[in-house]
Amino acid sequence: MSLLALSNVTIRYGRLTAVRNVTWAITEGETLFITGPNGAGKSSLLKAIAGVVPPAGGRIDFGGRDITGQAPETIARMGLSMVPEGREVFGSLTVEENLLLGTGMHARTRGWRARAASELEAIYTTFPMLKDRRAGQAGLLSGGQQQMLVIGRALMTNPALIAIDEPSLGLAPNIIDQVYERLIALQAQRSLTLLIVEQSATRAMLVGGRMMLMRGGEVLLDGDARAMGQSEAMQSAYFGYGEH
Amino acid sequence: MAGLLQTLFDALSLGSLYALGALGIALIFGVMRLVNFAHGDVISFSVFALLWPSIDAVAVVFAGNLPWFLLVPFTLTMGAGLAVASELLVFRRFRRANPATMMIASFALGFVIRYFLLMLFSSRPKSISLLPALSQPVEVFGARIPLLQVIIIGATLLILVGLTSFLKRTRYGLEMRAAAENFTMARMLGVRANRVIMGAFALSGALAAAIGLILAAQTGTADIQMGGAVMLMAFIATVIGGLGSLPGAVLAGFLLGAASVVMQVVLPAEARVFRDAFVYGAVIVVLIWRPQGLLSARGTKERV
Fold it and tell me: 3-class DSSP state for residue B218?
């Protein structure tokens, strides 16, 4: 059964159409990379899924419920956690406060305090350097540390699906490796569904899983990342050779 | 020495008023990017909520005679209630509008509150004696300081400490700080927009009511315009402090209060009428030096 399903989703900013009639679905436990050049509509699509930008048309279902046009907090509380582009840590809050923010949505349920504490420990085990900096201001972390923090923070909400926009943006290659290493380990541990947007397709081919290529607001290709990497269709679609 | 001490207390108590006002404005700006120009009218409303409607020159007191431990919570509740009602009835409908539209709406709301008070109480200022025991002077190191000034400063410090620990130690406070820095991201972590905004309005309204109480006790009058002057200074303080920064608002509020009182003392007698011009001149200098404010908030990003 599909966890997240988009049908005919269209997103407009004024007269500009950023995403045109996109239809796809991800099943539970799947990893989906959405790649494509700048302006392909990848980020817009994530924003629509997270409820930040209401789609101009179409329908989005998550966990069997229609979430089109719902408020971001409602969608987050249903178990869809979004890590937006540019990381968006709360710079004036401490590292631990950043992490704890994500547990607020469970604050009315029984035993949430104990669960939040054990969840925090789990995050600290995965990202030990966050523990060292727990009382420090999040704004003072390096880019790689901030990326780990926002992934940890998203995990604190105990989501079924994490959507990450450009996790490798502005990071050194060895740090990107670390981020992905953790992500993949976490996915195996928690049977997470991952939706990752990256401008470059190389990372998807390296990690494997399903890959989708967007361009001009439409999905051009959809298939196995490794297989697609070899295909010529991919090359031409990505770089736009042979267009027009 | 006594004179210096007197000036210090004057500066601190005036600064307290501006700091409380600036906090109320900064709280709302932080979560909504709204400069709430109705804030001054919430101040006036809280005072008139203690009176029966009448157009007499002497106020017909309704709740104003309550002992202080009932009077203070009552007034704070009235201020908070009006602020929450204005969010529910007015600002919520402009949530997705641009900031200019929201600001105009806040002007309109201010007029509605003011003319509502005008209708019930007329524009004539009323004499009102709130907590008369507070006008007794007390001796502090040889200087005779009105007890009220000491209480204003003490109460402001108490409010600041209380608000800080609320923001730092409670989950609600954590959510408010996060929302003030990056509202969209906070919502994507499940922080409920309505709850945070409502809390900010309630706090801001209670702060406005505290100012109303102080002004009424200090001047002994209730006037439908009484909130306006503080609102203007408080707004300037939030700008100097760095829009959206709560510590900045408090700091700038105290600085403005100090500047006003110091100008009053050091300016030659014939220039004192122009005191405010000198204060605003200093404001311009500060803004040329630091256009982003003294302690600018990091998260004054565009909200989606």
Answer: helix
Interface with A, mutate which of B188, B192, B195 (most A CBs under 10 A): B188
Whose tokens are 């899983």? That residue is A209
Q: Where are the domains of chain B?
A: 19-227
Which residues from chain A sit within 8 angstroms of residue B188, using beta carbons? 50-52, 72-73, 76, 81-82, 84
Task: Flag whether residue A105 sits within 8 Å of chain B, measured between CB atoms.
Answer: yes
**b/e sequence B60-92, b meaning 16+ C-beta within 10 Å:** eeeebebeeeebbebbbbbbbbbbbebbeebbe
Three-class DSSP category at A114? helix
Q: Which helix (H) or strand (E) holds A34?
A: strand A31-35
Judge: A84–B177 Cβ closer than 8 Å, yes or no: no
Contact B185 A104 (CB under 8 A): no
What ranges do the domains of chain A cover?
Answer: 2-86+159-239
Q: What is the mean pLDDT of each run of 10 residues along chain A (244 residues)?
A: 92 93 94 91 94 94 94 94 90 93 78 84 89 93 91 91 91 87 86 91 87 92 84 68 44
Q: How far is residue B146's CA from residue B134's CA, in Å, rounded to a whole number?
A: 7
**Chain B residue at shortest CA distance from A151:** B189
Kindly report the average pLDDT of chain A as a whole number. Answer: 89
Strand partners, B135: none
Q: Which residues of B touch A71 (CB under 8 A)?
A: 187, 193
Distances in whole angstroms, Cα of residue B5 to Cα of each of B2, B11, B151, B214 = 5, 10, 16, 21
A52, B44, B76, B128 from B18: Cα distances, Å = 36, 15, 17, 22
Closest by Cβ to A92, choosing from B189, B193, B298: B298
**What DSSP state is assigned to residue B97?**
S
Question: Which residue is associated with the tokens 């104003």?
Answer: B64
- Ranges in chain B, pLDDT < 70: 1, 297-304
pTM: 0.85
- pLDDT at res. A237: 67
CATH topology of domain A2-86+159-239: Rossmann fold (3.40.50)
Q: List, in sequence order, every residue forming a beta bridge with A198; answer none if it has no partner.
A: A35
Q: Name the DSSP class of A159.
A: -
Strand intervals (E) in B70-227: 126-127, 137-140, 143-146, 221-222
